[in-house]
Write a structure and sequence with these properties.
about 425 residues, mainly alpha, 3-stranded antiparallel beta sheet, two-stranded parallel ribbon, 20 helices, about 60% helix, about 5% strand, elongated, disordered N terminus
Length: about 425
């Protein structure tokens, strides 16, 4: 048998294209596509006026019972013997896993043409391959070596799937392959014709926490494998992605994997100057300082959060938000000499950018009020890099100048060779 003995193959046309379950009350739309009544009713009640499978606009929303298909499903259900509940799923061997990878590749290519027709088979194969990889690290490496070639197909198919359950399986499986396929590079023109953004935003807005964390990892992993870089891709142009990732940061109970994935993706995306304002508008200056003060982030995540603040200080919107925040400069000052050498140097770079490079008097006043002068002096006297020592000197001269006048004077620094942008 092609299928394992204890598995029953469900005819694909018996499954609802939305829920992927065997239909109990099949009904057809005017497009001719049949769905389970409860699933399509939820879709229509949500304000949608398109057919989920074909995305055609519906001329009417009548649901026509498909009695013929309902009878066929009943006959099939009555004829299928019950599977013993105690029977464990059979374990895959490497040869069978290789066969399933080939099958999955064929199904993914066919899905580009026939949309949801192959979704049930894809779900089954992905589930079995994911379980195979989870059995051991050796299996994970084996799967990544054999499945790396279908990675671009998996990434591109994300944009075509609108079912959250199937999307979660595809994204988790894609993350599994990407994590173990270091040599795989996804060329941008392989996915540029597919709108990934709508599916990604839908997952981040509507998915359960596990799916949202998986999406953050997905974005982070493809950001390291996409050529050209992710910051020049349409994914980084969507402002909703920035705001939703920041929302994930505040609702994931500071899950270390989620925090690291979100911050890594946002850092890579905002290397492009045009994306920094998007992060600011998404709430970056509100979320990141609060995280620095309240969350127990590891050193790497703290360094990335400070790097993002540095990048945002390079745009006018970012500086206005930082200087207008009651806690931002305080949060930066508190991380001096507290976390790691890299975090301290990153914090100095943010303060130097605000106070010296752009002459922000409000930022300089906030540093003084936060007792930052003493910390800057301690950093300067520590074993820091020459560039950081020079920035500390610039900052202290600005603060000294402020103490001799009613306001904080502009300090015309000559330290352009260490400008952090």
């Amino acid at each position: 048998m092609v299928m394992d003995d204890l598995y029953v193959t469900v005819p694909s046309y018996f499954r609802c294209p939305i829920s992927l379950d065997v239909m109990k009350s099949p009904v057809s739309l005017c497009t001719g596509v049949t769905y389970d009544r409860s699933s399509i009713q939820r879709w229509l009640d949500g304000g949608n006026n398109t057919c989920p499978a074909t995305m055609q606009v519906l001329h009417n929303k009548d649901l026509i019972p498909n009695y013929t298909l309902q009878r066929l499903i009943k006959i099939w259900v009555d004829s299928v013997p019950l599977r013993p509940p105690s029977s464990p799923p059979p374990r895959l061997h490497s040869d069978r896993a290789t066969e399933l990878i080939h099958q999955l590749g064929t199904q993914l290519r066919s899905m580009h043409r026939d949309s949801f027709l192959y979704s049930a088979a894809i779900t089954l194969n992905i589930s079995r391959l994911t379980s195979f990889a989870a059995e051991s690290e050796e299996n994970g490496r084996f799967l990544a070596a054999g499945g790396g070639r279908i990675l671009p197909l998996l990434v591109s198919i994300v944009g075509k799937v609108k079912d959250l359950s199937l999307l979660e399986k595809i994204i988790v499986f894609t993350n599994l392959l990407q994590k173990n396929s270091e040599k795989i590079v996804i060329v941008d023109n392989e996915i540029v014709k597919i709108d990934l953004n709508s599916s990604i935003v839908m997952c981040l807005k509507q998915g359960r926490l596990e799916l949202r964390i998986a999406v953050a990892k997905f974005l982070n992993l493809i950001s390291t494998k996409l050529r050209p870089g992710i910051h020049s891709s349409s994914i980084s142009e969507d402002e909703e992605i920035y705001s939703e990732l920041l929302r994930l940061l505040t609702t994931c109970n500071w899950n270390s994997e989620a925090v690291d994935a979100c911050l890594s993706f946002l850092t890579i995306s905002t290397l492009s100057k045009r994306n920094r304002a998007k992060l600011v508008r998404g709430g970056g200056v509100k979320v990141l300082p609060a995280a620095l003060l309240a969350a127990e982030m590891n050193a790497a995540s703290t360094e990335k959060a400070l790097k993002l603040l540095e990048l945002m200080s390079g745009c006018k919107e970012g500086r206005n938000e930082i200087c207008g925040s009651e806690i931002c400069v305080e949060a930066i000052v508190k991380k001096l000499l507290k976390v790691s050498t890299a975090a301290t140097e990153q914090a100095v770079a943010v303060l130097w950018s605000l106070c010296c490079l752009f002459g922000e008097k409000r930022a300089a006043a906030a540093v003084v009020e936060s007792n930052g002068m003493g910390k800057i002096l301690m950093v300067m006297q520590s074993n820091c890099s020459p560039a950081v020592r020079q920035m500390c000197g610039d900052l202290l001269r600005v603060f000294r100048c402020s103490s001799k006048s009613s306001g904080i004077s502009w300090y015309d620094t000559k330290t352009t060779h260490i400008m952090p942008f």
